[in-house]
Amino acid sequence: MSELTRDQVVSAVHPVDDAIIAEIIATGASEADLAAACAFVAREFRSHEGRDVPLGTIGQVISILERVGARPLRGSPLGEAGSTME
User: What gap in Å lies between CA 5 and CA 7, rounded to an integer?
Assistant: First the structure.
């Protein structure tokens, strides 16, 4: 598992400041974890289904993204995370 970089976080979500970037990186999330968290947040934003947040690292990242109101970017290099397609 490789550690996320600042550029990976910035390219996946917005708005996000340095403190939030550091908090996301501190979870130990991988790029795949960030992509899964972004995909979850994007689906919830569109569908408002209110699904249970997964446990573990992905859930920690989801909680951070939801707390700060960050949204996955369209065209994200992380694929589905920024897509409007399901």
Answer: 5
Per-position b or e across 31-43, b if 16+ CB within 10 A of its CB: bebbbbbbbbbbb
Residue 29's φ and ψ, nearest 5 degrees, are -65, 145
Query: 49: burial class by Cβ within 10 Å (0-12, 13-18, 19+)?
Result: exposed
The phi-psi region of residue 69 (left if phi > 0; otherwise alpha if psi is between -120 and 50; otherwise beta) is left
Task: Write the pLDDT tens digit of every residue in 24-80.
Answer: 999 999 999 999 999 888 887 766 666 777 789 999 999 999 888 877 775 444 444
The answer to whether 34 and 8 have CB atoms below 8 angstroms apart is: yes
Rounded CA-CA distance 64/60 in Å is 6
